[in-house]
Amino acid sequence: MRKKLIIDGNNLLHRAYWAYKKNEVEYKGETNNSVYVFLNILKSYVRLFEPSEIIVCWDYRESNEINERKEILEDYKGQRPDHFEVYESMPSIIKLLTALGIRQMTPKNFEADDIMWWLCAKKYPNECILISTDTDMYQLLIPELSQNVFYNPKRKIQINNVFLKQKYEVNDGYEFIIKKALRGDTADNISGIKYIRQPRIQEVIDALGEDFDMEALKNSDILKPEEFELFERNIKLMKLDEILNHPSEIEWYEETLDKPLEADKNDFKRLIKELELWNIYKKVSEWFSAFQYKDKSNSLSSVYSNDFYGLFD
What angle do CA 117, 120, 125 make, to 5 degrees? Predict the structure, then answer.
C-alpha cells in the first residue's frame, strides 16, 4: 500500500541550508541555493518512496497566536539560536510547494510536532512515512503504529524499537517519552530531575503502567513531591498526545486538510525563473512532473526496508 509522506518542513529547511553551506562549490551558479537543495531532497524522497500524498508540516503560525507550551514554561526553547538566514528562503519554498500542489500544514497554538504526531497516530495511522530527525517523534514507535515508517535522514536509517533499545535503553515510544520527561531536554530549555538513574527511571515506567496512571505514580513515593511536579510539567510539554485535549487545534488541522489543492505548472515555472534557479528552469517540465506523484503506480516492492541510501545528508 502506498503511504503518505509526512515531511518535517523546518527540519528539511535546516538540512538544505547547511548542506549547501557545506558544499558551496557543488551548488555554485544557483542564486537561491538552499531552495534548490530543498527541492532536490524532496524530489529524491518522492522518487524513493512513491507516496500517495505529501504533507509538509511547518513550525510557524500564520497569525500572532500564542504558543501553548510557553504558557506552561515561559523560557521554552529560549536558548535556541534564531538562524534568521536559514528561514529567508521559507516564503519562496512555500510558494513553490503550493504551485506543485503539495499540501502544507501549520499549527494554530501548538507546533509542527503535534501536527505530525496527529497525522501519523490519529488521522492516518499506519499509513505514513515520516521524515524527521526530531527525537520527540519517537513517541510514534509503539506496537499499535508499527506499520508507519519513521526515516531519519541524518542517520539514513529507519528508526525502530531496536534502535530505541540500543540507544536509549527503552522498549518503545511510551518509555522513551517518560525517560525524556524525567531527564529534561536542554535543547528546548526544559530542566529535568538531576542525577536520576536508569533503575529509578524504570521504577517510574513500571508505576505508570500501560494506562499512564499519574495518580499511582504520585502515591508511589518513587519521586519526591518537587520531582513529581517537574515530571508532570515536562509531560505536558513533551507528550504529543496532549494535543487531543485541544479540540480547536484538531479542528484547525482538519480544516487545512479539507482545503482543495491544484498544481499550477505555469506558476511553478514563473517562480523558478524569478528565483533564478536555472538548473531547474532548463528542465522545468521534468521537475514539475516529478512531483505529480499521485498518478504513478507503486513499483518499489521493497522500499520499506531498514536502511535507505542515496539521500542527502
Answer: 140
With 0-12 CB in 10 A as exposed, 13-18 as middle and 19+ as buried, what is 189? middle
Predicted local distance difference test score (pLDDT) of residue 218:
95
HSE-CB for 300 with a 13 A CA cutoff? 14
Exposure of 63 by Cβ count < 10 A (0-12 exposed, 13-18 middle, 19+ buried)? exposed
Partners of 150 in beta bridges: 130
- Element at 167 (helix H, strand E): helix 161-168
> What's the rounded Cα separation, in Å, for the pair 73 and 96?
35
What pTM does this model have? 0.89
Longest dimension (CA), the chain: 67
Distance CA 248, CA 266 (A): 36
pLDDT tens sequence across 185-224: 988 889 999 999 999 999 999 999 988 999 999 999 999 9
Residue among 126, 124, 118, 128 nearest 252 (CA) = 118
Looking at residue 169, its pLDDT comes to 95
Q: In 24-45, which positions are buried (b, 16+ CB within 10 angstroms) versus exposed (e)? A: eeebeebebbbbbbbbbbbbbb
Q: Within 13 Å and on the Cβ side, how many CA atoms surround 305?
A: 9
Residue 207 and residue 220 in contact, taking contact as beta carbons nearer than 8 Å: yes
Cβ atoms within 10 Å of 13's Cβ, excluding its own: 23
H/E element holding 45?
Answer: helix 33-49
Helix (H) or strand (E) holding 130: strand 128-131
Given the DSSP bridges, would you call strands 157-158 and 149-152 parallel, antiparallel or unpaired? Answer: antiparallel
Query: Considering only CA atoms, which of 125, 111, 29 is closest in space to residue 69?
Result: 111
Question: Kindly report the CA angle at 226 between 224 and 229, in degrees rounded to 5?
Answer: 110
pLDDT for 31-55, tens place per residue? 568 899 999 999 999 999 999 999 9
